[in-house]
Amino acid sequence: MKTNVKNLTKTDSLPTRCSNSCRKLLAQIEQAKDAIIAEFRDSFKAQQQLLHRALEEAQALACQTEFPLLVFPTLALEKAQAVVARQVAQHPERTATFAP
Q1: Residue 96 phi, psi dihedral angles, 5° rounding
Q2: From residue 81, how far is each of 16, 22, 85 by CA, in Å?
Q3: Engineering a disulfide at 71: which of 51, 56, 62, 82 sits with its beta carbon 3.0 to 4.6 angstroms away?
């Protein structure tokens, strides 16, 4: 594995590097969230907060793993699909509205 020497200067402390890494990780998770929200936006017209809750739960679970960026997209997609399925089961008369 190549180490980026530019990012490992002596002036950067370990806490600074860790903080930068965490910010980058969270930004990448936010990008994935935005993509999933865009994909399911029409399915959740009046129920946007259900989708956001599902994605927050997926993020919390993914961050407990060793590889959150690998786990989050799949888990978030599964959670969003589960919410759609639950909405369809609870409101069969609105099935067309909740189509993913």
Answers
A1: -65, -30
A2: 38, 28, 6
A3: 62
Exposed (0-12), middle (13-18) or buried (19+): which is 55, by Cβ within 10 Å?
buried
Contacts of 17 (CB under 8 A, 6+ apart): 7, 8
Which residue, chain included where needed, has tokens 């690998």?
70
In the chain, the DSSP E strands lie at none
- Burial (0-12, 13-18, 19+ Cβ within 10 Å), 98: buried
**Which H, E and C letters describe the chain, residue by residue?**
CCCCHHHHCCCCCHHHHHHHHHHHHHHHHHHHHHHHHHHHHHHHCCCHHHHHHHHHHHHHHHCCCCCHHHHHHHHHHHHHHHHHHHHHHHCHHHCCCCCC
pTM of model > 0.85 = no
